[in-house]
Each structure stands twice: as structure tokens, then as C-alpha cells.
Design a protein that fits this description.
The protein has 104 residues and is mostly helical. It has one domain. The chain is elongated.
Length: 104
């Protein structure tokens, strides 16, 4: 009986404390600086690409942190969704940039 109660207490503590530990996970700052492909320079596009890659790494680290902390909320999925939206926007502008500069 004591083991059952102790087991229940440990499970309850895990549920209560996991979100608190997940609080140590810092969500990366949103990156929204997508250059306009119709007027951007090559360096602006490369700079944005590097920033998106860095943001991608930060989102992965954030997601890993939440997973390791036992966080079962939707925070990681929301961060990945924001990243995907950003990448989609960048790809549209990159396509425009390439068309403008004669690349296929």
C-alpha cells in the first residue's frame, strides 16, 4: 500500500513539476526580417538565409529542451509552425529573387 501511495505521489509530482522545469527553456526570438526578393541584394538574401538557419537551430534546441523537461504542452509545435511559416515566406521571396536574377 505504501508503494502505491508513494508511486502516486511521484507521478503527481512529475505532472506538477515538469512544466516548472520546462520554464527554463527559452523560446527563441521570432525572426521576421524577410527581404523582398524583387529588390533585395544577394547579401541581404544570404543574410536572411543564415538568420533562418540560426532560428531553425534555436527552435530545435527549444523543442529538445521542452521534450527533455517532460513538457507535453503544444509550445514546441507552435514554435515549429512559426519556423515553417517563416521558411515558406522566405522561399517565396527567394524564388522571386532568383527569377529576377536569371537563375532557375
Amino acid at each position: 500500500m505504501t508503494r502505491v501511495v508513494l508511486s502516486g505521489v511521484l507521478m503527481l509530482a512529475q505532472l506538477v513539476l515538469a512544466p516548472a522545469f520546462a520554464g527554463g527553456c527559452s523560446e527563441p526570438s521570432a525572426f521576421n526580417e524577410i527581404p523582398n526578393g524583387a529588390s533585395a541584394t544577394r547579401e541581404q538574401m544570404l543574410s536572411a538565409q543564415r538568420a533562418i538557419k540560426a532560428y531553425d537551430n534555436a527552435v530545435k534546441a527549444y523543442s529538445d529542451c521542452l521534450r527533455d523537461a517532460g513538457d507535453t504542452s503544444n509550445k514546441a509545435n507552435l514554435a515549429v509552425d512559426r519556423l515553417q511559416h517563416l521558411a515558406d515566406r522566405f522561399n517565396v521571396e527567394l524564388h522571386t529573387f532568383k527569377e529576377r536574377n536569371g537563375a532557375s
